[in-house]
Amino acid sequence: MPFFAYKGRNARGEPVNGVLESANRGAVADQLFNTGITPIEIVPTKKGAVAARDNVLARLFEDKIKPIDVQLFSRQMYTLLKSGVPIMRALAGLQESSTNKSFAKLLRDLRESLDTGRELSAALRRHPEVFSPFYLNMVRVGEMTGMLEEVFMRLFNYLEFDREMRERVASALRYPTFVVLAMAIAMVVINVFVIPAFAKVYAGFKAELPFMTQILIAFSNFTVRYWPLLLVATASAVIGFRFYISTRDGKYRWDKLKLRFPIAGKIILRGTLARFARSFALASRSGIPVVQGLTVTAQVVDNDYIASRIEQMRDGVERGESVLRTAVAAGVFTPVVLQMIAVGEETGALDDLMQEIAEMYEREVDYELKTLAAQVEPILIIGLGIMVLILALGVFLPIWDLGKAALHH
């Protein structure tokens, strides 16, 4: 689409100018009016195309906005608004003090949007890659209820919990991942360098080799001869898998399969349900209706299968069913959790009970992560033992047989 340079005045009567990409002048004028700018002049330009190319190059090297930036932003906004600082001045101060240039640019865009008369939630909605639907809905509710600073504090606590949960999972998986990677590298080295050397020795004896040795040598020869093909096949499999799980159906099936993994599956399930329970409790405490709360929490659980179960709960509540009945039908909650939901719904303290459910799941996840190494270690030892046994039978047994034959003669 063509680019158009425009000049106009904002709601305060101040002159503004810029470049927009649109189908025609009328579409540009409509876009400007929707943002509170009265256009004075709109002319075609080629500068936008150059600027677009420059922006692509700039984006490749600019700082990325990380979740910790959004978390700190939430905490700082709570402190500033709680102290009575006007929101425009608060954003200006955060923009000046931000060490992340990309986030500073985002804050400047928020200020410009607010300056045209938009609400903060609408300004944040212009950056869906940074702020999740749950975050946007919470800010919207804070604006409607006049509890914006309290909502920012709750969002900070929620983002802190989410970050700690992900870091604990990554830390717990670091050791088994390193061991499995080391075993894979060892197998490659043995196949490419060690077994071919032994194969030359065996060929000199011209003796009949054990079946296990023949298999190892054949596999090693195949690896050495066709390693480029194996490399391409592995890369293609990885790319194909990533493409498959990027599709809606593929991600749903993969997320469902992950919950069935031995050991890791129950950790993923409990961590996901803890995120759901805490999100739902936060939404409920902030005044979001149950149906809308289930909708926004389904978007932040980071598991399409669990999200579909939550959306099923939402549909049931819309039909007039109780939260307890829909939770039972979802089939992902334990009996203890279902009892807590029943008590919370009966007493009208569902948000408090969901908070306790989140804390219970967090304690279970914490325990599972602490014992993860102890649970995985026997599996790794058995795998290493099988690998050593195969190598011993395939590589050293012929040498042992040849040595006994030599001693016999």
Provide a descriptive summary of the structure in words.
This protein is mainly alpha-helical and 409 residues long. 77% of the residues lie in helices and 5% in strands. It contains 18 helices and three strands. It has a three-stranded antiparallel β-sheet. Strand 1 and strand 2 form a beta hairpin. Helix 3 (67-82) packs across helix 4 (87-97) and helix 7 packs antiparallel against helix 8 (148-205). The radius of gyration is 30 Å and the shape is extended. It starts with a strand and ends with a helix.
Question: What are its keywords?
Answer:
mainly alpha, 3-stranded antiparallel beta sheet, 18 helices, 3 strands
Proportion of residues in β-strands:
5-15%
How many beta-strand runs? 3
Structural class: mainly alpha
Read across the widest sheet, the strand sequence of neighbours is 2-1-3
Mean pLDDT: 82
**Oligomer classification:** single chain
Please describe the biggest sheet, giving its number of strands, its sense, and whether it closes into a barrel: 3 strands, antiparallel
Order of helices and strands: EEHEHHHHHHHHHHHHHHHHH
Q: Radius of gyration, Cα only, in angstroms?
A: 30 Å
End-to-end separation:
88 Å
> What is the percent of helical residues?
over 70%
